[in-house]
Design brief:
It contains nine helices and seven strands, in the order E-E-H-H-H-H-H-E-E-E-H-H-E-E-H-H. The chain has one domain. The protein is globular and about 65 Å long. The chain has 314 residues and is mainly alpha-helical. Helix content is 53%, strand content 6%.
């Protein structure tokens, strides 16, 4: 194969460690990146949903259901699209498929599982599902950008060999290295490409989110289109093992489906005009606006005292 050994003076080094110990626990940077992304997305979504008129931190009630289901969906989607890695004849660890801390989650599985969880959470809280999705979109994309640094720490999901000055160094012995590649070969840093693309997307979504025409789920549709369009490109140059369907990686097909779904949502939601009347479904109001009923027809203490003085004068 063509050699892409260090023909340039610069490169991006990969971290030498992917975890550290804290007492009896092993802390994986991959998990920390995901947790940090979830926290940032939660704060952003709360801010955006509150500005629309929702009760502060109602988002917590939704993500307590959505996040666990998103993680389950992300892991199962990855396992089902990489069956040979977990259930093949050469697999020695029968429980490897549940070890999410070692890497291996799929964003499209997270979207499916998270959507189910968010729908359930929105039903409980009375929040419109479309209002929540639009509020979530920018934070979701930023969380994905942050999560990609976990792939960098794990030295996984990199692209084809390259001699570009921003080529990524990968440690010898990495299971995804091409057979016959020179030890100092550099690879496309697809994690970095996606970080940049997603960050730009956050700015675009925040700008579009100021427009009334981007409500009713349309902003989330733009998120799907933006993210999936970039993912089609990054997936096409990745060299990690993947199931191939009709000549394309399964995640390429997933990204194509993401673009299609986003376009369908934009088309279907054309029937809605203007802004959503409220982030709540009809008949539901924020708890903060609920007040105890007061009988204003009854006299107040001041009025009773004044009446007593008038009686005394008489």
């Amino acid at each position: 194969m063509q050699s892409f050994a260090h023909s340039v003076a610069t490169s991006i080094p990969s971290p030498e460690i992917s975890s550290f110990t804290l007492g009896p626990f092993t802390i994986h940077f991959y998990a920390l990146c995901i947790i940090a992304g979830i926290i940032v997305a939660t704060f952003m979504t709360n801010h955006r949903l509150t500005k629309r008129g929702a009760e502060p931190w109602v988002v917590i009630d939704i993500i307590l259901v959505a996040v666990p289901l998103a993680l389950v969906g992300a892991r199962l989607f990855h396992v089902f699209t990489h069956m040979g890695d977990y259930f093949g004849p050469e697999v020695t660890d029968p429980w490897a498929w549940i070890k999410i801390w070692e890497g291996g989650i799929a964003i499209y599985g997270a979207l499916i599982g998270g959507a189910v969880g968010a729908w359930i959470g929105c039903r409980w809280t009375g929040i419109r599902f479309t209002a929540f999705a639009d509020a979530l979109a920018p934070g979701m994309l930023l969380a994905q950008a942050m999560g990609r640094f976990g792939n960098w720490f794990n030295q996984e999901l990199y692209g084809l060999p390259t001699d570009l000055p921003w080529g990524l160094e990968i440690s010898p012995g990495n299971p995804a290295l091409p057979i016959g590649a020179a030890p100092d070969t550099l690879y496309h840093p697809t994690f970095l490409y996606e970080v940049i693309w997603n960050t730009l997307g956050v700015l675009v979504l925040l700008w579009l989110g100021r427009k009334a025409s981007m409500q009713w789920g349309r902003l989330f549709a733009v998120y799907l289109i933006w993210y999936s369009a970039g993912r089609i490109v990054w997936e096409s140059i990745r060299i990690d093992p993947s199931e191939i369907i009709l000549g394309l990686r399964t995640n390429v097909w997933s990204a194509i489906l993401g673009v299609v779904v986003g376009l369908i949502v934009l088309f279907v939601q054309r029937r809605h005009y203007g802004t959503e009347p409220s982030p709540y479904v009809p008949g539901r109001v924020p708890q903060a606006t609920e007040v105890e009923y007061v009988d204003t027809s009854a006299p107040t203490e001041a009025e009773e005292a004044e009446e007593a003085r008038e009686v005394a004068k008489a």
